[in-house]
């Protein structure tokens, strides 16, 4: 599809530019993907001195500088993901976070991870609404819709769902009972079921079917819980008779967190197709909504997710582990070989649906050892020689079967799926 897609990849000197091979913001269609921001002062290119609040303020100042450099404001934010080195820092970060979102709260996902680049204590990435669009969309005034329901857990610092254009974003749902505001009793099975029930409740509150989910990210504090979570997951997906008939499963990524808010063992966030859109799309468009889930035998298949799920002008790719196609097992090799294997799978999936790597707008990378970052980058840049997507890198405590790296991606989808407006 290269050549028909016009992405807008932009950098400003008012935010850090040279911390890795990424573009600060990559806009396509009605969304703009903001690369993870570290607490680095753009004037020195170095981590700032200071406590966790100073670090949080610098991350948000960098995001604000990027957003303002492209004519937007923080009120246009749809989603923020907040990565902490220590979950105990959350209250301190929240106090700063609130200052940057006085009026309109994006959805939010919070997790503590094993390590962040440069030894930072905090990092944040973001998704921005992009009403002006990129070619082939014409600029038009669009409304962002942030909605909350009393029937799902309330979070004073996150909207439950923020819809814009043809997508809706659901903030991370903890296994919280909305009636008590506390975690549900029980173990991982009960917690996983409550996360999914909360997502379902949020969707019902805005009259959106569960199978309109295109991507789910699971955050687990212990990967040994994954089989139990999957057991519950498959009782929720597919949901409707139509989705069961085609065995529809959203794209999916699993992230190993060191800790989650409230001491939860699991949380989940989701990206939703939004057939009715926000104005000027028509509610009637919902009836023509097409979600295109695709798999190729040339890349690892899973009974738990589709390799790629396209809707409207975006396509979501499931996280790719460095699975060796010859053995079906994690490639026995160093991080460079494993990175090439993950990106090789992504390239195969991308090409199987008629796209090229340059159509990718955002990449998320999990490293088992953050010290592998430079080696991973050495391979990464070979896959993006001409243009660099926005990007987020985290160090995780664990990856399945001892893998060293896992990578997922979001891709522009200029051909679109109906409704085409
Ligand atoms: C710092 C960052 N966003 C990256 O991808 O290396």
Automatic annotation (TrEMBL):
<dbReference type="Pfam" id="PF01042">
    <property type="entry name" value="Ribonuc_L-PSP"/>
</dbReference>
<dbReference type="InterPro" id="IPR035959">
    <property type="entry name" value="RutC-like_sf"/>
</dbReference>
<comment type="similarity">
    <text>Belongs to the RutC family.</text>
</comment>
<dbReference type="InterPro" id="IPR006175">
    <property type="entry name" value="YjgF/YER057c/UK114"/>
</dbReference>
<dbReference type="GO" id="GO:0016787">
    <property type="term" value="F:hydrolase activity"/>
</dbReference>
<dbReference type="InterPro" id="IPR006056">
    <property type="entry name" value="RidA"/>
</dbReference>
<protein>
    <submittedName>
        <fullName>Rid family detoxifying hydrolase</fullName>
    </submittedName>
</protein>
<keyword id="KW-0378">Hydrolase</keyword>
């Amino acid at each position: 599809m290269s050549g028909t897609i016009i992405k807008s990849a932009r950098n400003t000197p008012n935010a850090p530019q040279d911390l890795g091979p990424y573009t600060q913001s990559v806009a396509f269609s009605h969304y703009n993907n903001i690369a993870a921001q570290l607490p680095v002062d753009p004037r020195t290119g170095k981590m700032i001195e200071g406590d966790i609040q100073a670090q949080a303020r610098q991350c948000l100042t960098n995001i604000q500088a990027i957003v303002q450099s492209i004519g937007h404001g923080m009120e246009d934010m749809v989603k923020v993901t907040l990565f902490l080195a220590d979950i105990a820092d959350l209250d301190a970060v929240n106090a700063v976070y609130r200052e940057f979102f006085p009026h309109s709260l994006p959805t939010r996902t919070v997790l503590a991870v094993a390590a962040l680049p440069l030894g930072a204590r905090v990092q944040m990435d973001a998704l921005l609404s992009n009403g002006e669009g990129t070619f082939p969309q014409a600029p038009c005034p669009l409304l962002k819709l942030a909605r909350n329901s009393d029937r799902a857990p309330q979070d004073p610092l996150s909207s439950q769902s923020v819809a814009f254009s043809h997508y809706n974003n659901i903030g991370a749902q903890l296994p919280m009972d909305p009636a008590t505001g506390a975690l549900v009793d029980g173990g991982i099975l009960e917690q996983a079921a409550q996360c999914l029930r909360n997502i379902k409740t949020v969707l019902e509150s805005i009259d959106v079917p569960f199978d309109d989910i295109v991507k789910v990210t699971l955050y687990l504090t212990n990967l040994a819980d994954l089989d139990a979570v999957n057991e519950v997951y498959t009782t929720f997906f597919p949901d409707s008779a139509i989705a069961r008939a085609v065995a529809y499963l959203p794209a999916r990524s699993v992230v190993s967190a060191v800790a989650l808010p409230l001491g939860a063992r699991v949380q989940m966030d989701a990206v939703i197709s939004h057939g009715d859109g926000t104005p000027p799309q028509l509610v009637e468009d919902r009836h023509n909504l097409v979600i295109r889930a695709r798999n190729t035998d040339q890349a690892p298949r899973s009974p738990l997710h589709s390799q790629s799920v396209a809707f409207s002008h975006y396509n979501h790719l499931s996280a790719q582990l460095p699975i060796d196609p010859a053995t079906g097992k994690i490639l026995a090799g160093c991080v460079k070989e494993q990175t090439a294997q993950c990106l090789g799978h992504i390239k195969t999936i991308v090409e199987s649906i008629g796209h090229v790597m340059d159509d990718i707008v955002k990449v998320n990378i999990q490293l088992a050892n953050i010290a592998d970052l430079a080696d991973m980058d050495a391979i990464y840049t070979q896959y993006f020689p001409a243009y660099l997507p926005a990007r987020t890198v985290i160090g995780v405590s664990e990856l399945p079967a001892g893998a060293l790296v896992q990578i997922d991606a979001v891709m522009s989808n200029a051909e679109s799926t109906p409704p085409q407006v």
